[in-house]
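Any chance you'd type out a single protein's sequence alongside its tokenized fold?
>
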Amino acid sequence: MANPPAQSSDNVLSAEDEQAMLEQHSFMLEQMEKGDTSAVSHSMPNIDCPLRKAGINPHQLKPFDEVEKYIAFLERPDRIQWQRPDEVVKALNLKAGDVIADIGAGSGYFSFRFVDKLTTGKVIALDTEPEMIRHIHHKSVSLGLNNLEAKIISKEKPEVGEPVDVVFICDVLHHVENRVEWLKQVSATMKSNSRLILIEFAEGELPEGPPASLKIPKAQLLKVTEQAGLKLTTDHSELLPYQVMLEFKKVH
């Protein structure tokens, strides 16, 4: 099998490398689902399938083409102009040994940017969609990453599985029905004085984001986080043109 495509310092691949990686993913997926690990170099990270660990049959996932279209949407080039991922990561001021949970990681848009900062720590990328977890897992194996773990979670119980220093939640909370209880469950996995970063689309008519009916007013965000035992420490909203970015600390 061909060697994994070279990765840049920020894990952003060229179109040519992305295509090569996708072809490698397909090959690896076929071999891994047959239980054959010989196709993967021993220098690579553990390739244990997170879906099989969760008891999910990988043969019952959405069609590959459909999944790739959604991933392409999440990774579209123009997103960087308003999501400003580099500025967001810098604002988090991550320490090398931090453990960060990226809840609702999607395609790993932020997860793969976090790994460069965590030389002795790790990223736990969590999502409710098994197709996204499979994508993140295969991409991390292809890139030779040892500090990224992909894990499936349920919509009602976002169980991280271990204590973390930072929780990162971007454009997820407006999908949650019982927000206070959901945040309480997230907070339960956080270490004392650890941080939670919450990003949601701002109110008003914007060229990006969900319909107005799904948006959460900033006052409501502050209310539900307080009820969940989180205290606002920093408002980073000036960084983003279309979103609110709030940083909280676990208070109990």
